[in-house]
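RECORD TYPE: inverse folding
INPUT: structure tokens
STRUCTURE:
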């Protein structure tokens, strides 16, 4: 069986594996029912086959399968290996067996080098073949969408069956630097009325400008606030390190570019703690503790700890 046929069979098996769970979650979302954070992450990652479909399409359009695989980045090569395992194949590509031909990849540029003892004709043969080599796949730095792009994408979504997966696949070809995923699109849909109002109220120049994210990234902060509330209700110990790590996790989930991640310093942490606490409750509890100290005669030196060192002296 040809390698590309194995690849397509692997993609079909992968679709079948995720179909039931994905259909169930999508039905819940359409019915307005909430789904868990784990299910949201699954829908955006394992349940989203946009990357797999793009790799298969790229190799289908390649003039040569082996050269097509050679040009893929490491992540896409991993996808090829996964699909071939599912489809019953082994290695991601066949190695060239011709004893007079070796393939080198130097700084992402494929170079054919002939090791045949033909004298001066060797260099000439190499030069003749070099123009046919295809460059490596282009890397795109992740960018924010402009307001005009957001409205264009949302309009397409409503006009083409409201399928977030198809929309991501469609616009990742047109705007590859946006790296659209389903969860990011879901966030846009929640704020669609706000984006459209802003679009109607702005001139063409503002519509084409990159969206400027607020310093605190309100979508991330909202997710973090909800998570903190649940964690406190479950009596989970929250530390500054845990809060910073969760912020980064939620930022990645909604597609905040790496270069726009906040510098989560002590200042930010203090601000978040202050913003998350009800000042009236804190003040009331502080006064209550002061009363307990006076009532029971606690001394400043009586500072207890639960580990090996149980008593500190001040």
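DESIGNED SEQUENCE:
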């Amino acid at each position: 069986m040809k390698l590309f046929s194995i690849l397509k069979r692997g993609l079909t098996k992968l679709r079948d594996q995720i179909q039931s769970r994905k259909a169930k979650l999508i039905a819940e979302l359409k019915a307005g029912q909430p789904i868990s954070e784990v299910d949201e992450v699954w829908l955006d990652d394992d349940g989203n086959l946009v990357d797999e479909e793009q790799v298969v399409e790229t190799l289908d359009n390649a003039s040569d399968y082996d050269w097509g695989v050679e040009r893929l980045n490491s992540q896409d090569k991993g996808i090829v290996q996964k699909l071939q395992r599912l489809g019953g194949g082994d290695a991601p590509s066949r190695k060239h067996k011709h004893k007079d031909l070796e393939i080198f990849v130097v700084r992402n540029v494929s170079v054919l080098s002939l090791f045949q003892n033909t004298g001066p004709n060797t260099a000439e043969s190499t030069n003749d073949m070099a123009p046919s080599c295809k460059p490596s796949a282009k890397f795109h730095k992740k960018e924010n969408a402009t307001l005009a792009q957001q409205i264009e994408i949302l309009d397409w979504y409503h006009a083409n069956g409201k399928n977030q997966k198809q929309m991501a696949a469609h616009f990742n070809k047109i705007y590859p630097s946006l790296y659209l995923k389903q969860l990011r699109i879901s966030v846009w849909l929640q704020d669609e009325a706000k984006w459209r109002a802003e679009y109607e109220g702005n001139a063409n120049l503002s519509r084409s400008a990159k969206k400027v994210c607020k310093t605190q990234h309100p979508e991330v902060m909202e997710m973090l606030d909800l998570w903190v509330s649940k964690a406190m209700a479950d009596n989970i110990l929250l530390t500054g390190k845990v809060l910073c790590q969760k912020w980064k996790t939620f930022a990645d989930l909604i597609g905040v570019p790496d270069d726009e991640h906040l510098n989560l310093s002590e200042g930010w942490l203090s601000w978040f703690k202050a913003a998350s606490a009800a000042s009236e409750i804190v003040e009331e509890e502080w006064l209550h503790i002061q009363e307990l100290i006076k009532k029971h005669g606690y001394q400043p030196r009586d500072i207890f700890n639960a580990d090996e060192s149980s008593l500190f002296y001040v």
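NOTES: The chain has four domains: 3-93, 96-139, 147-207, 218-304.
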